[in-house]
Amino acid sequence: VVGPTLKSRHVVASRQNWEAFGPLLASQAWYQGFAAADRKVFVSDGSATIEKMQRTHFPHYISVLDILHALSYSLAAARAVSNSEDAAREKYNLWAAKIWEGCVDHVIGELIAYGTKLGQPPPDARSDDPREIVRVSRVYYENHGDRMDYPTYRRLGLPLTSSLMESTVKQVSRRVKGSEKYWSSAGGEAMLRLRGEYLSDDEPMKDYWDRRSRNASGIRAYRTAGQAMYN
Q1: Integer angstrom CA distances of residue 156 from 29, 83, 116, 165
Q2: 26: Cβ–Cβ under 8 A, 6 or more apart, which residues?
Q3: Residues 6+ apart with CB under 8 A from 195
Q4: For the chain, what percentages of helix, strand and coil (3-state, to nearest 5) are there?
Q5: Do residues 98 and 104 touch, judged by C-beta distance below 8 A?
Q6: Model confidence over 155-206: pLDDT tens digits?
Q7: In terms of pTM, does the model score above 0.85?
Q8: What distance in Å separates the CA atoms of residue 203 and residue 93, rounded to the nearest whole number?
Q9: Rounded to an integer, what distance in angstroms lies between the CA atom of residue 166 and that of residue 63?
């Protein structure tokens, strides 16, 4: 199966919460003409905040759970219920095939059975407790099963992963994060916006500097000392 190819990339970056970031993203989507597209898709890792943003600003988009995130929970659960790596690989391959076929209910059913066999994890269970891993995986699939119809998504030619965005995040982080990099709230926000624009294919910053140079008159207005003192 050949998935869609990237036509162009437009990046919006911010440190604000989803309530503030959502309108920025929605306006960029509108500006790029997404509203006129016949098929619109919103791919995410299933986090609660991203889902809220999708329901608020992109309700008419097909919401797709990133299949790589979905498979990662199967791998963790397969290792938690198996006594060897070979057995875990066999179990994972079975569950991965079911997820690819759109049969996540089959995986949920097996996780319920394993949960019954292992017992409920205690409230203070560690994240590596097999009981907790099985429970978390089951809940993840129960919450996102309606966004895992991968056969239909493939027939529609929709993307199944957010890998292009994941790699872009690393490019943003390379400029903003790291040793000896310190930002005020305003400075960090400004740098994120600039970094997003520099990574966008339509090069908005180049257009800005081109317009600035064309409109430059070569004359700089100076104020007198008195004006500078009292203004």
Answers
A1: 20, 39, 38, 21
A2: 57, 58
A3: 11, 13, 171, 172, 175, 176
A4: 60, 5, 35
A5: yes
A6: 998 999 988 888 888 888 888 887 888 888 898 888 888 888 888 888 777 7
A7: no
A8: 43
A9: 17
